[in-house]
Design brief:
heterodimer, A: mainly alpha, MetI-like fold, 14 helices, B: mainly alpha, 15 helices, Sugar ABC transporter permease (chain A), transport (chain A), membrane (chain A)
Chain lengths: 314, 306
């Protein structure tokens, strides 16, 4: 089930096992399974571990319950905030809806869907060329894609906002359109490198056999290579989605007025609106949280594989 | 690229026919990616470097002023404060998230189903959009005595803390949120590293009767060194360009006490419309980021060679 080792950061160490120990390896007692030698038998260490796990759970996961409970509480102030709602109401969501939260969510979904599609197509095409062809300047191109990772939106924000207002050569104004957010997300160095690494490992014999049958380049990619890359595409897809959903500065500088905001950026509008309380802000936060939550819970295996392989969030 | 894998010698032979059809194919596949990277990454970078030497005046035309933007930004006391804040935040956040991430990985390592569930839950902060996390922490930091964290402090008999409104504390409040976001992320990388440790080494260590600490120090730590270096590289880079965390939680306030390099540059460029100065600040950050990346990579290579 698990994806093979995809490791763009440490290509020198291909012998690192992908994830968990395989059943075949598990001939040693359980206490040699973990670095700290945790034991399954009840005892002092066992109780300590359970206590620490509970603390970790409260610290890292329980705060999310407060978002949900606050969002469903009529007028949460500090005092009524808790892990469980006092009274359940959809009022906050209705008020947030009047403030246009569903439009912002629509912007976000269009950008996430379009951006992810573009990103996957563009990165797959580039990876195919880099992995299955040899040409002059290959190393240079690889380096260029790696450099895009070092040029995050933060560092080029000011000139990028000028470029979005007046794209060179074609002189288009992308500000205020979803393209202003989607297009800059297209070439993501991480996806290109990860897919390239993965495609390189596909045996040449498969490709040669297809070539003898007269398969052209596009069909080769679509029908031969891509079906073999499903695990890597899953990783690229889920990480790409999380990365796009997390974008903050880019939608901010690509907008002309607040109606262009994505749902995550629009939270600041709700917060600074004096007429709505924190319950409405939390309702907005819930709406902004749910899509990434769904993607995470459905595809967490791919996500964890990708991050373990040296991914970057943004 | 036909049925036979071309040997280096054969490649040299075809080099003369550089424009034959086969040579064009890879470039067609690369074209969309290169075009997008060029227009939305490299062109803005070049433009930013160019603008950093100009006095950008709308309608009047830009004027070349050499390094004046740089000297203005680097001598500005708010930028100098921002360097300090960026370093404190970046280093504190990275070290905290690495230590806590390692502790979490040690705690949650294992095959049990309950542990898998725990790992899924603990990892939530890392996949949540930073803007949502910001709202969440504003709530936890609620400044009255009945706020979530403050009521916790009351329980232990401590007074109310103005987490985000006290200029002496706000930066550390931001740091705690950063650690909370990145510790689970580091945990996953460390878990992958721990999974790669040879189990027979643990067994051998037990036979030699070494202590738990020695086992961690001499068996586990060397084995996860590659994972540690990755985490360190990522933390360094993102520590310097921290923006969203600060922007959504405090906006740089109160009284500039949490202003970091990028929020400062953002204010300069978008609020005060000083494009030249903001570009100079971005170029400085870019250079430092590149320098650090190269440095960390060199350290990594040296570590691997050993």
């Amino acid at each position: 089930m698990s994806a093979p080792v995809i490791d763009p950061v440490r290509p020198a160490a291909p012998d690192t096992p992908a994830g968990r120990t395989t059943p075949a390896q598990r001939t040693t007692p359980a206490r040699f399974d973990t670095a700290l030698g945790w034991n399954d038998r009840p005892g002092l260490a066992w109780a300590l571990r359970i206590l620490l796990c509970l603390i970790a759970l409260v610290v890292f996961a329980a705060p999310f319950l407060t978002i949900f409970s606050g969002a469903f509480t009529t007028n949460p102030s500090g005092s009524s905030l808790s892990f469980l709602p006092h009274d359940s109401t959809l009022l906050n969501f209705r008020v947030a809806g009047e403030r246009g939260i569903w439009d912002y969510l629509g912007n976000s979904l269009v950008i996430a869907g379009g951006g992810l599609l573009l990103q996957l197509v563009v990165c797959t095409l580039a990876a195919y060329a880099l992995a299955r062809h040899r040409f002059r300047g290959q190393a240079l191109i690889m380096m260029l894609f790696m450099m895009t990772l070092m040029l995050p939106e933060e560092v080029i924000a000011i000139p990028l906002s000028l470029v979005l207002g007046d794209v060179p050569v074609v002189h288009l104004d992308l500000k205020g359109t979803v393209w202003g957010v989607i297009l800059p997300l297209g070439a993501w160095g991480f996806s290109v490198m990860m897919l390239t690494e993965f495609m390189r490992d596909i045996p040449a014999e498969i490709e040669e056999a297809a070539r003898l049958d007269g398969v052209g380049e596009l069909r080769m990619l679509w029908q031969i290579i891509l079906p073999l890359c499903k695990p890597a595409l899953g990783v690229a897809g889920v990480l790409g989605f999380i990365m796009i959903w997390d974008q903050y500065l880019l939608p901010l500088i690509a907008s002309k007025d607040p109606t262009d905001y994505t749902v995550t950026v629009a939270l600041s509008i709700l917060r600074t609106d004096p007429e709505v309380g924190s319950g409405v802000v939390l309702a907005g936060a819930v709406i902004a949280l749910i899509p990434s939550l769904i993607v995470y819970l459905l595809l967490q295996r791919s996500l964890v594989t990708g991050i373990a392989a040296g991914a970057t969030k943004g | 690229m036909t049925a036979t894998v071309p040997a280096p010698a054969a490649r040299k032979g075809t080099g003369r026919r550089a424009f034959d059809k086969k040579a064009v194919v890879p470039w067609l596949f690369l074209a969309p990616g290169l075009l997008l990277a060029l227009v939305f990454k490299f062109w803005p970078m070049a433009k930013g470097i160019w603008l950093s030497f100009l006095d950008v005046r709308p309608f009047l035309g830009d004027k070349w002023i050499g390094l004046e933007n740089y000297s203005r930004v680097l001598t500005d006391h708010r930028f100098q404060d921002a360097i300090g804040h960026t370093l404190i935040l970046g280093i504190g956040q990275s070290v905290g998230a690495i230590l806590l991430g390692f502790a979490l990985a040690l705690l949650l390592e294992g095959q049990a189903r309950s542990l898998k569930f725990l790992r899924t839950a603990v990892f939530l902060p890392a996949v949540t959009a930073t803007a949502v996390v910001g709202e969440l922490w504003r709530l936890m930091y609620y400044p009255t005595s009945d706020g979530l964290l403050n009521s916790g402090l009351h329980f232990f008999g401590l007074g109310t803390v103005q987490f985000l409104d006290n200029p002496d504390i706000a930066l550390y409040s931001t740091m705690v949120m950063g650690i909370w976001i990145w510790a689970p992320y580091n945990m996953v990388i460390f878990l992958a590293g721990l999974a790669g440790v040879d189990r027979s080494l643990y067994e051998a260590a037990a036979m030699d009767g070494v202590s738990l600490w020695q086992r961690l120090r001499y068996v586990t730590l060397p084995a996860i060194r590659p994972a540690l270096m990755i985490v360190l590289t990522l933390a360094t880079i993102r520590g310097l360009r921290v923006f969203t965390e600060v922007y959504v939680l405090t906006g740089g306030g109160p009284a500039g006490s949490t202003d970091v390099w990028m929020t400062r540059a953002y204010t300069l460029g978008f609020t005060r419309n000083d494009i030249g100065g903001a570009s100079a600040a971005s170029v400085v950050l870019l250079c430092v980021t590149l320098l650090l990346t190269v440095l960390v990579n060199n350290l990594r290579k040296r570590g691997e060679a050993r």
